[in-house]
Amino acid sequence: MRKYDELVFQILRGMSDANIAFTDLVNLLKHLGFDMRIKGSHHIFRKDGVIEKVNLQKEGNKAKPYQVRQVRNIILKYKLGVMYNG
C-alpha cells in the first residue's frame, strides 16, 4: 500500500512526469480499480464513475509524460489518490 501512496505523491507533485515507470503506472491504475484491456500497444483503462478513459503506451520502460499528466488530472478530479481520499 505504501508503494502506491508514494507513487501517487510523486505523480501529484508533477516534478518527474518523464520518470514514472510504465509498469508502476499500470499497476497503480489497476490498484485504483480501473479495468484494463490491451489493443496492440495501447493499454486502455476504464472505471465506473470516471468519464475519461486512460490510454497508455510505453516509451522505453517509462510512461509518456503527457499520459502521467492525464492520470494526475483524473486522480485529482475524481479524488482517487490512495492517501488523498476525502
TrEMBL record:
Record flagged with keyword Nuclease: yes
Stretches of the chain forming a coiled coil according to its record: none
A Pfam entry, by short name: HicA_toxin
Keywords: Endonuclease, Hydrolase, Nuclease, RNA-binding, Stress response, Toxin-antitoxin system
Top-level taxon of the source organism: Bacteria
Alphabetized GO MF terms: endonuclease activity; hydrolase activity; mRNA binding
Presence of keyword Signal: no
Family per record: Belongs to the HicA mRNA interferase family.
Name this polypeptide is given: Type II toxin-antitoxin system HicA family toxin
